[in-house]
Amino acid sequence: MLACVGTAQAGAAAAGRNAGFGVSMSPAWIPGDGSGVAAFMLALKAARVKPASAIRAPAATTAVTSCADDNGSGTLRNVVAAASEGDTIDLGALTCSVITLAQGAIPVMADTLTISGPGQNALAIDGAGADRVFVHYGYYELRLNALTVRNGVNVRSGYKVAAGGCIASNGYITLDHSTVSGCVANGEGAYGGGIIARGVTLYTSTLSGNVARGTNLNTLTASYGGGAFAYHGTAALYDSSVSGNGATLDAANPFGSYDTGGGIFADNGGYALRSTIDGNYSSGTGGGIASHAGFFVTNSTISGNIAKNKSGGGIFVRMSDAMSVSNSTIAHNSAFKGGGIYVAGTPQSFELQSTIVADNAAGSGAADIAVQMTQTISGANNLVVTAAAAAALPGDTLHAEPNLLPLAHNGGPTRTHALAQGSPAINMGNDVANLATDQRGAGFPRVVGAGPDIGAYESAVVSPPPVPVPALPGWLPGLLVGALAWPGLRILRRISPS
Fold it and tell me: Of 46, 85, 378, 467, which sees the most CB atoms within 10 A?
């Protein structure tokens, strides 16, 4: 049924260049069944050429000295092509702010490589809307440190699968203080608007404005993971932001589409710690996060995400294993079902600790938490305004309006919802996870006052303002001194000898 064709596969295998290959699918393919992305990953694996320098040891650091993209000595493309296993490519000394790719995506054949820049706001590697930025054929980790990757595209017409608008990897992608933004994957099946890899990890990094879009107007389409797609792997976020990404279909398509994971799609679950997932969009399920295994959220905010036609505005989880959300805030998300959280299947356990799930919206049923099957939710000290009758919440759950302030930069690397004064969430949470800080990190302790607050944000204790002392007129101090001294003078006159 499936015809797996790499359109530039032979060239990539022979020369290690021209990484813009795609995968053709039969017109009988059913988008969303998993075979399209599987065919793409097999093609990526088959196109790998082991670098001739792979046996060199130990690993080296090589500087990029040119901002051009002409294969000349010292260019990023040239240095990456010559890299060995475990090497570091150093762009820290460059004085330009952008390297614009003129020859398409840069192929990375090494299994393990680090590309390190001077800062994500100082240097961008720009695909110029012509091709991807990096294609990593190796089996292990491509780590991007302190730089931005942007404006990559992978567009496939007809019955073809597109994947990894900016970065496609046969291994694992790690972003460390880096950004991937403005990337697009368009095809009958579109997987990973920003990144496709077997696993994706972010440390103090950002995925923003990336789109996976189903574009064939003659049939059903599929789009997964607007920001990133973790194929048969996990997604892990630490002190990071996933914002304004989308998994959607071409608006002119009359056949519909299977779309899931506007921000992140993870086959095997994942973890979010001190992170914010906001403003992402899916035409189908999982506006913020979609996972086919347990997802663990701690000290994080999931806000303003949309799953337009189906379920799980903030989080959609389809699983049979465990799920846990602790010390987090899930608010202002929307979906047809389960605006905040939607759980499909029957997890082994579903724990909610010291978490706010409120102010979400749904076209049908409970707005904040909805479940496909009867589910007992364990935990304590939560604030959930509405939940489906089939979701049995812990007995001490509060159902009051939490009085959240708008999402804002309240300190730390990510945005949070502060609690308005008088919020019922203040001092009513727990710290079962023994967290040292709230979502904002260092300088923002997890417990302030009588107890921890419910949610990702810990309010400071507000001391009563000092009573101002009015300034004294210049003539008054002298008068006071005189008035206070007069009784003493009278006493002295009485006791002095006459």
Answer: 85
